[in-house]
Amino acid sequence: MADLLYFTDKLIVPFHPRQIFIYEGDNDLSVGRTAEQIIASADSILLLVRQHLPEAEVIFISPKPSLKRWELKAKYEDFNKKLRAWTSKKRNVRFADVWTPMLDRNGNVMQDIFIADGLHLNEKGYSIWTSALKKYVGPPK
Question: Residue 117 belongs to a domain with what CATH number?
Fold first, then answer.
């Protein structure tokens, strides 16, 4: 998230998007950043976006679960809860949950949605991702 904050003026603002999808937090959590630190960066990104693109809708996508980082499950769940709460208090901002659809009925990460590294999604994983995000594309309902 901190890297995106640094590059917001180059990666987002010049394109004048009506919708902005932000997937950050996964790597931040894996290197020890706290939910509060990540959300502080998200808040700064949102401030910059609002200065230049006041009517743009911003969708923050939850970090996904993974086999490789499953030992960080509690940190991911805490961050997702805090990110959801933070987005609910912001105008024209939504939270997109890709965490929950990637869990099996026992609450464990699905085993068959990753490439060999256990971190990056395979075709099935991206199909779940696509289904979870489809309802956010276009004007809010």
Answer: 3.40.50.1110
User: Can you give the residue range of the structural domain that contains 101?
Assistant: 2-134
Is the pTM value of this prediction over 0.85? yes
Long-range contacts of 118-127 (CB under 8 A, 24+ apart): 118/66, 118/67, 118/68, 119/66, 119/67, 119/68, 119/69, 121/64, 125/64
- Rounded CA gap, 63 and 42, in Å? 13
Residue (of 130, 141, 77, 80) closest to 108 by Cα position: 77
How confident is the model over 25-43, as pLDDT tens digits?
999 999 999 999 999 999 9
Domain count across the chain: 1
For tokens 């105008």, what's the residue?
A: 91
